[in-house]
Amino acid sequence: ALTLAIVVNCINMMQDMQGQMDHPTGMVESNIITVRSRPFSEEFRTREFLLDSLKEDVRLLESLPGVRAAAAVNHVPLSGSGSSSGWKPLGSEINTLATARLDGTIGVVKTLGVELSAGRDLVPEDYNESKSKNVLITKAYADALFPEGDALGQKIQGRTPDNPDTIVGIIEHMHGFWPGWTYIAHVLVRPAEAGGFNWGTTYMMRTEPGQVEAVFPMVEEALLGANDGRNVRVETLAEVKAETFSAQTAIVKMLGGVIVLLILVTGLGIVGITSFSVTERTHTIGTRRALGARQFDILRYFLTENWVIISSGLVLGIGLTLLLNYLLVTFVNGAKLSPSLLVYGVILMWALGLVSALFPAWKGARIPPAIATRNV
């Protein structure tokens, strides 16, 4: 009963975490490289120099063999670190709806590899000094802001109606910075020259399919060759995502170990109990054999007895499983248990019980009839 409750809920948690890690993000993750440039040279303190360096870096990265597009961004999606904000339809009385905010230079959409379902991409004219910007939002965020589906061309505001932004494009699907966040699919892309002396500049580059390994070693050398007054860190987006999910990966492995240990201990327990039951009834088995019982009859008896005990435990275990899942969903934001997983868990426990009892039961079935008269 306890093994069923713990194993099924552990598997449910593992599936939920693995689902978060494997969920489509809308981006071509396998072809994206991220670059972190942290300046220490005093010349980067000049805003004009910093922006000129940013533009030159983007051009340099795009010129590398095997690179399809590059852009500077404020934060890397899926990294676990980023900016969020809230918008609502201009003039609306509702509360602002939360979203991740990705600031990026021209070409950020092409770099990420996301698809537009409506409207247009950002163009050079969108990068201006106006506080009101033309922006892109994901379809999930558009549906939240405008349930009737008329988001394209609409104006949106923050807490105040000052400097509203205009939606010029809808991204079909994209994930933001924090995997596991309730609003992970809410993303707003705003045109901006992202970067600063204190926090550096982050670049993302998209390679041709299968060219990440070839491009990767060229990136640091190219950027430091252009200006060595900074430190450069290069990672693939896959590495960034793996680091973000490192805790979940460790938990999945730990839960897997718990499951294996519980099943092993439960199986050994059933073997021990069945062996004890066979030993206790050695003379009874011999007597039955002497009266004509076949080995199959003895084997069937012990397996049936085992099945009845296992089934009784599983009835209690089903209730414990549902109760534990209710507590996890209610108090720790766990995933709701699917009925099919519970059914598979019951079948697994039945199989475990029968397999574990098979050897000692077969050993008992081979007790010869002469045992019936021994020591009498």
Order of helices and strands: HEHEEEHEEHEEEEHEHHHHH
Cross-sheet strand order for the largest sheet: 3-4-9-6-8-7
What is the overall pLDDT average?
A: 92
Portion of residues in helices? 40-55%
Biggest sheet overview: 6 strands, mixed, barrel
Nearest-angstrom radius of gyration? 31 Å
Report the structural category.
Answer: alpha+beta
The share of residues in extended strands comes to 15-25%
Overall geometric form = elongated
Count of DSSP E strands?
A: 11
How would you characterize the overall build of this protein?
- The chain is an alpha+beta fold and 376 residues long.
- Helix content is 48%, strand content 18%.
- It is built from 10 helices and 11 strands.
- The strands form 2 sheets. Strands 3-4-9-6-8-7 form a 6-stranded mixed β-barrel. A 4-stranded antiparallel beta sheet has the order 2-10-1-11.
- Strand 3 and strand 4 form a beta hairpin.
- Helix 7 (246-280) runs parallel beside helix 10 and helix 9 (295-331) packs antiparallel against helix 10.
- The two termini are 41 Å apart.
- The relative contact order is 0.18.
